[in-house]
Each structure stands twice: as structure tokens, then as C-alpha cells.
Design a protein that fits this description.
Layout lengths: L5 E6 L10 H14 L5 E6 L3 E6 L3 H19 L9 E4 L3 H12 L1 H5 L12 H4 L8 H9 L5 H8 L13 H11 L10 H14 L5 H8 L3 H8 L5 H21 L7
Antiparallel strand pairs: 1-3, 1-4, 2-3
Helix pairs in contact: 1-2, 8-9, 8-12, 10-11
Length: 262
């Protein structure tokens, strides 16, 4: 057993993609964060056909972590193919921990995955504070990955800075940033994160959009909009959305991507 942890890799026997859409990527992220709670995961990244994780776990516990994660992913996506035997490699020293974490988040570079320009299938948005579901990774990284600096994360995107955005290009851009911040595929239903996401949109756009426009954007009735307007989203939620807005705006400009809703 390595006291520093394990570098874990899992993939399907059929070698098919683990995510083929934005909604599937966000579902994968939710599965990672939910099923790995018993073990401190420091970083992760999914390169289409395989998922890598750096975990503070023993060789045996890393196998159990992978087993639970594979079950969760099968239930969400029904791949129609079993997973291969999990690959685990003990982390040898602190440099190995750091290098493995960066490798996992650089999967787009290794595999030219243009389908995930915002690195949503990695822990990079969590560590930058631009996604709420993995906010706990920030303090964990400070403890176990002291070498990791903000500029390392920004380099993954080809950016030099990231600041909370004050404006957005369109209501659709705001919606997409909010969905990414909460790792949601849509605003359907009334789960806690969905309600929090709606609250964020109304708080941030209350001065720019009419009640009718807010209703259309959040799939809400006028009564719900009136109720949401009486409250403010937590400042931490607002900041995360604004960081996600700046991240998406910069990456779209850098990669010449179409704007949401265009």
C-alpha cells in the first residue's frame, strides 16, 4: 500500500465513450463526487473512453472506490458493456501525486477532446472555484497538493487570469454558466441544486430581464419568479457563477466557439 494514495484508471470493455454529451459529462462529475466521498479524491479527468482519479486511498480501497463509481455510472448511462478490471498504481512521492493530478486534468491535450472545451469532465472547474459540487477539493488540494497553484489550472485552458464576470453576452450564456456551475443538464424538476440554480439566475438577472423573460429562461411560472425575486442567492453561489461566466467567455473567444443560443 502507498500511504500517498493511488492513481486509478477505469474503462469499459467495449472501449466506448463514457460521455457523449454535456449532460452526460455533468452526470459523470456528479457520480464521481457522490460515490467517492468516503475517500479523499484530489483530482480526476475523463478522456472520453477512460476515467482517471488521484485518491488518498489504499490499493484495496481504491478498488472499492472504482467498483462503486462504475456501478453509479452504469445506472446513470446504461453503457451496455461491463468495465474492465480497474488499474491502480501506488503514488511514489509528492512529485508523483502532483504529476498524476495534472495528467488527469490534461486529458483534452492528450486525446484532443474538442468536445469538452471547458474541461467539465475534469476537476479543474472545481479547483478554480467555478463549480460548486466539488468546492471541497480546494481545501483538500491545499492540504495534499501544496504545489498546485492557480496558474497551473489556468494553463490547462490557455488562460492568464480568471475573475468574476460583471456582465454576460446573452441570457442563454448566463443559463449555460449556471448549469455548468451546478453540474446540471437542465433546469427540469425541483431538486435542491435545480432550485438553487434558478435562484442564482433570478438574483443575477433580475435587473436585466423582465419577469416573463426570467420565467422562460428558468422554466418557471410567474408565481415562482415573484417568490425567487424576494430572496438573494448565496454570495458563494453568485461568485462561482460569475467565475464560470468569465471562464466560458474567455475560452469561447480563445477557441472561436459559437456563443450559446447563436
Amino acid at each position: 500500500m502507498s500511504f500517498l494514495g493511488q492513481h486509478v484508471r477505469t474503462r469499459l470493455e467495449s472501449d466506448r465513450l463514457l460521455h457523449c454529451s454535456v449532460a452526460q459529462r455533468r452526470g459523470l462529475v456528479r457520480a464521481v463526487h457522490k460515490t467517492t466521498r468516503p475517500w479523499p479524491v484530489l483530482a480526476f479527468g475523463c478522456a472520453g473512453v477512460h476515467l482517471h482519479l488521484v485518491a488518498k486511498a489504499s490499493w484495496r480501497d481504491a478498488g472499492e472506490l472504482a467498483r462503486r463509481l462504475e456501478i453509479s455510472l452504469q445506472l446513470r448511462h446504461d453503457y451496455g458493456s461491463p468495465f474492465l478490471k480497474v488499474h491502480r498504481k501506488g503514488l511514489e512521492d509528492q512529485h508523483h501525486v502532483f504529476a498524476s493530478a495534472m495528467y488527469d486534468m490534461r486529458q483534452r491535450e492528450h486525446h484532443d477532446l474538442a468536445s469538452d472545451p471547458f474541461l467539465e469532465a475534469t476537476s479543474a472547474p472545481d479547483l478554480l472555484g467555478a463549480r460548486l459540487i466539488g468546492a471541497h477539493l480546494i481545501s483538500r488540494a491545499r492540504e495534499h497538493l501544496p504545489e498546485l497553484r492557480r496558474h497551473h489550472l489556468l494553463q490547462l485552458y490557455g488562460l492568464e487570469s480568471l475573475e468574476p464576470a460583471e456582465t454576460w453576452e446573452s441570457p442563454e450564456a448566463l443559463l449555460e454558466a449556471v448549469l455548468a456551475t451546478f453540474a446540471l443538464g437542465s433546469l427540469e424538476g425541483f431538486a435542491r441544486d435545480v432550485c438553487s440554480a434558478r435562484q442564482c439566475i433570478v438574483t443575477l438577472a433580475a435587473q436585466q430581464l423582465t419577469a416573463s423573460e426570467l420565467g422562460d429562461l428558468t422554466s418557471s411560472c410567474s408565481r415562482t419568479i415573484r417568490r425567487l425575486r424576494k430572496h438573494q442567492a448565496p454570495l458563494a453561489h453568485q461568485r462561482a457563477v460569475r467565475l464560470q461566466l468569465d471562464l466560458q467567455q474567455q475560452v469561447r473567444s480563445l477557441l472561436d466557439l459559437d456563443k450559446p443560443g447563436s
